Q: What sequence folds into this?
């Protein structure tokens, strides 16, 4: 079966559309997170989301709708720990992450152990995405990208010098809250793509790949989005053709792009 013939399948179409939108958004957020040294927030919020997913399955409710508010609250808790206590970003992420995954394990144990549904969220299954999940991913991506565009200058200033941003009137606390909440929503929705265990790669790898080649902040954003989208599309097709896990394949495609970009940069620096 050739690649083009795969596009006739509805589940492939849904996977690519949802994957492109979520990868595009995650790639943009990832540049800000990497430059602010908050790369692991995706991993931390994914563990918090795991607790929300386990709660939803325990209660017999749609897991994503429970995980969304749980992850948003987790993101706000991380931010407040950073602002009001003597806890650095990575430590705050680690604390909230540990609590989230512990709650998830306890809930899974109480409800009778790790069932198939919960395991699918750990590793992701973008090929099983439903029409409703597709619509949610597309609408969320459009709204989040619009918000990023609206606050682009403020986010840029905060990324490179938060103190200077405050002196010129940027409401850093409010924008940080909004930014962290957006990241939490992206993490929950992207879990369907690559799973809880690999979600941080979707935020980190395209951004770090772009930073190997970019000569400006704008080019870093553009390249990150391009690498992310290409990795998702390639990952979906390769995984289906080889009958291997899609989420893991997407991550490996991103890593291949990173290796090529890093090698290209090293080659031209030596000349």
A:
């Amino acid at each position: 079966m050739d690649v083009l013939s795969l596009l006739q399948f509805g589940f492939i179409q849904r996977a690519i559309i949802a994957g492109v939108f979520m990868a595009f958004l995650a790639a943009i957020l990832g540049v800000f997170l990497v430059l602010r040294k908050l790369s692991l927030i995706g991993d931390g919020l994914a563990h918090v989301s795991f607790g929300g997913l386990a709660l939803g399955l325990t209660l017999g409710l749609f897991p994503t709708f429970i995980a969304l508010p749980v992850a948003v609250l987790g993101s706000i808790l991380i931010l407040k720990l950073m602002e009001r206590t003597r806890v650095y970003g990575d430590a705050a992420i680690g604390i909230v992450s540990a609590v989230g995954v512990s709650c998830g394990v306890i809930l899974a144990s109480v409800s009778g152990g790790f069932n198939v549904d919960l395991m699918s969220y750990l590793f992701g299954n973008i090929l099983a995405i439903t029409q409703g999940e597709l619509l949610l991913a597309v609408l969320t991506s459009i709204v989040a990208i619009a918000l990023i565009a609206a606050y682009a200058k403020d986010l840029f200033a905060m990324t490179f010098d938060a103190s200077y941003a405050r002196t010129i009137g940027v409401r850093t606390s409010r924008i940080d809250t909004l930014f962290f909440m957006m990241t939490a929503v992206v993490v929950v929705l992207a879990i369907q793509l690559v799973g809880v265990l690999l979600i941080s790669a979707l935020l980190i790898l395209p951004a770090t790949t772009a930073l190997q080649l970019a000569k400006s902040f704008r080019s870093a954003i553009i390249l990150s989005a391009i690498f992310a989208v290409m990795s998702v599309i390639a990952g979906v097709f390769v995984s289906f053709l080889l009958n291997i896990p899609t989420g893991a394949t997407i991550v490996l495609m991103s890593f291949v792009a990173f290796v090529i970009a890093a090698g290209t940069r090293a080659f031209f620096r030596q000349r």
